[in-house]
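Notes for week 9. Today we move from apo structures to complexes. The key idea is that a small molecule is not decoration. When we ask for a structure prediction with 2-acetamido-2-deoxy-beta-D-glucopyranose present, the ligand SMILES becomes part of the input, just like the chain. The input block below holds both the sequence and the ligand string. Read it once before you look at the output, and try to guess where the molecule might sit.
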Amino acid sequence: MHMESLPGDMSFKADGSGAVCGLYIIAKPEELIEIEFTSFDIDCEQGGLLAIVDGWELNGQFFPNADDHPLPIEEQYRTYCGVKTPTKRYISSQNVALIQNRILKPGQGFSIRVKFIKNPQPCNAVYMADTGIYTLKNYGNRRNCTLAIIFPEVVQLVAVDVGVTAERKSIEAEFGLMNKCETNSGSDMIEVMGGYGFDTQLMPRNHVICGLQSTPAKSKIVLGCENSVVRMVSSGKYYNTVTFQFTPPVVEELDSSSC
Ligand SMILES: *[C@@H]1O[C@H](CO)[C@@H](O)[C@H](O)[C@H]1NC(C)=O
């Protein structure tokens, strides 16, 4: 297993151990990953294989999860070997991608050139630092976007406009925040959740929020689990945006009982 957060040329040659290797690539949240295969030599015999995951996978959990992924399931995870070589230029759907391989023949392997390119409309992203401020937007689209932070966090909502603004203009009245977000015209909402692993479907939905409030929320949400996520569900009927900040919990706040 290897994590790479810088672009550049990389190559892998098997040592003959047949171990499963994973190269976890991460760019900035507002970037995509472009992977160009400059060489590819992996025999299918004895199960030699390279897989490109459009996201990250750990312990069988995928980010983004299959439902929130913009691509159909067969394109989220693709395998290659022998004459079936990867397309020369591959572009991920978010700031993370994973190359897994198991190569049995010593000396076989592959080379890639990795570039980070601007994502004009970031949706799903993994965040690598434990402190920050971030904005999720749907740009009026029907899609679900998640920021996954790989740390326990205390999350404070700074500004929320979810399930309210039906056009690209601001509404004067402040509705405030609500926890009942199912309406006839959709169930646009934010979910602030924590858990072990990446799969947002496996996390308890304790904090569901929608409404309009342009001042920071007084209360903070403590997520004492290994990973923290803010997920925005959008029906496509509203221009949703949420800005939140997050800081690591103090020791007394670290309570994993709800994970
Ligand atoms: C977004 O998530 C909601 C519930 O979590 C689901 O009902 C809806 O189909 C999802 N939308 C898309 C575009 O995947």
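The chain has a mean pLDDT of 92.
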